[in-house]
């Protein structure tokens, strides 16, 4: 029996070394792919931002024209605006592709490894069961000793614990993939979605009603109805997604407690929504990466790193954009810019 145990231990050690080599190789390849994707994204980011700001200036100039002339310009720009929206979406999708491969391949890798190890473990369980039946038929061994002998020979206690751990990690990996796919659903929806004119205060109340329930007790959120009479042409569900992504980041920044304040300002040609927190702030070296898909400072498994990149894409689809200013240790102010149509 000792030789059988030694053989099993050798098989387990070989499997562990094999998994370790595969993990190191996969990590190196993924790091190379991720760095390439990030550099490509950063090279494109300034162009995307410039395009959004140009659109804002365009709508500001339109607001200064008589209605009849402005309508003429809007009608002639409608087709080109839809085409630009499609190009924007395809550009971001191409930038996301490498990051998606990295983020999804990682959980798929350990789910696959778990399945391979489970195959060996289940074989041991069934072998133990077959041997137990044979011994009982022979009647040559004390029935009372058989369970302990089988458990020792096939390391069944270890098998039980490892199967439980692998099931848990596999479920976590599957949930992470589902979360990533859910975050990316916005890019599979039609370019043109239903939009309506919304009062800014009503829009913010709608957008915050879900996230408010998830704010911890040591963080307060201040939002008083503004004097804004402006209306914005938006899809309110998409703007809710933007608000939730921004406020979730503010909550994470206030790890030791804090305050999140929301204010609205009407400006010529635009409405600005300011979301300010007094949390930890963003490190200067992280500022160029905040809209990079899959970039996150959260612990592994705590987020996809898609929140702000999706939020920026949604704002750009509304001809708007996001500004972020932050001081390490003092807090962060996120500005949502909505050009008036």
How are the strands ordered across the major sheet? Answer: 2-4-5-7-6
Low-confidence runs (pLDDT<50, min 5 residues)?
A: none
N-to-C SSE string, H for helix and E for strand: HHHHEHEEHEEHEE
Q: Per the principal axes of the C-alpha atoms, what is the gross shape?
A: elongated
Rg (C-alpha, Å): 28 Å
The beta-strand count equals 7
**Total number of domains:** 2
The quaternary structure here is single chain
Characterization of the model:
- About 60% of the residues lie in helices and about 15% in strands.
- Strands 2-4-5-7-6 form a 5-stranded mixed β-sheet. It has a two-stranded antiparallel ribbon with strand order 1-3.
- The chain contains 7 helices and 7 strands, in the order ααααβαββαββαββ.
- It folds into 2 domains: about 1-185, no CATH class; about 195-340, Histidine kinase-like ATPase, C-terminal domain (Heat Shock Protein 90).
- It has helices at about 1-60, 65-140, 145-155, 155-185, 200-210, 235-255, 305-315; strands spanning about 195-200, 220-225, 230-235, 260-265, 270-275, 320-325, 330-340.
- It is α+β, with helices and mostly antiparallel strands.
Can you lay out the helices and strands and say which pair or pack?
Elements: H1 2-62, H2 67-138, H3 146-153, H4 156-184, E1 196-199, H5 200-208, E2 219-223, E3 231-234, H6 236-253, E4 258-267, E5 270-277, H7 307-317, E6 321-327, E7 331-339
Parallel strand pairs: 2-4
Antiparallel strand pairs: 1-3, 4-5, 5-7, 6-7
Helix pairs in contact: 1-2, 2-3, 2-4, 5-6, 6-7
What labels describe this entry?
single chain, 341 residues, alpha+beta, Heat Shock Protein 90, 2 domains, elongated
